[in-house]
Amino acid sequence: MEKQFWAESWELEGHYTSFHRRDVHPYVLKHLTPYALMDKSVFVPLCGKSIDLVYFSQFAERVVGVELVEKAILRFFEENHLAYEKKGERYVSGNLTIFCKDLFALTPEDIGEIDIVYDRASLVALPLPMRVEYLQKMEELTSPGTLYFLNTLEYAPTMDNPPFSIAPDDVYGYYPNYLIEHVESPELPNHGMVRKHNLYYLKEHGFMMRKLHDAAFASLVESATRSFYEFS
Length: 232
Ligand SMILES: C[S@@+](CC[C@H](N)C(=O)[O-])C[C@H]1O[C@@H](n2cnc3c(N)ncnc32)[C@H](O)[C@@H]1O
What we know:
10 helices, binds S-adenosylmethionine, alpha/beta, 9 strands
């Protein structure tokens, strides 16, 4: 979605920002435990005012978020009663830094070495052409060994607005260079979207993924394997 869409969503708030949860996400509590976060650097792309940032900053060594709309960042600090210092495009509170910036302009130098990525309502927020750019940017910002915890929603019938439906097969296609464990897939008949959009079903998937090697290497292996089978 374009910048204007998100600026307007945060301006209007209410159901325009209904993606925001008041609690720490249950998948986070289950899979990114205090022990798993110990001494780790966590990156939260498209972070909004997610309260998960507070949880991560309690247990991880360093937390970095990026959010396009300043109002979301100001709301985050206000609602969580956290003091912060503004240093150019960075909003810093203890071990937490939120960049007020377009993710696509973020560099590996900006965020430093990252151990864990937490992606909830981020990949699913982007229409396909932008999603491809997002995958390329996240590839650039991560290294082999990075743990990537991804949540997606899958539902029918599909819609043309975020959150977009992303099924497990899409995820396996998007991350060919990751080892993927599909750890959560409950159907949620009471989810607000089911009622609001008259959906047949909705599932919230959780994927625990480990980056094995860079994507360029993955496509090299894929094309080498393809030509091996073509010539044999
Ligand atoms: C659907 S919300 C999800 C927020 C958060 N992940 C959560 O779980 O509540 C997507 C957020 O990404 C922000 N956003 C959209 N495009 C962005 C971009 N290119 N760079 C940084 N943030 C962006 C929006 O302003 C919005 O707050």
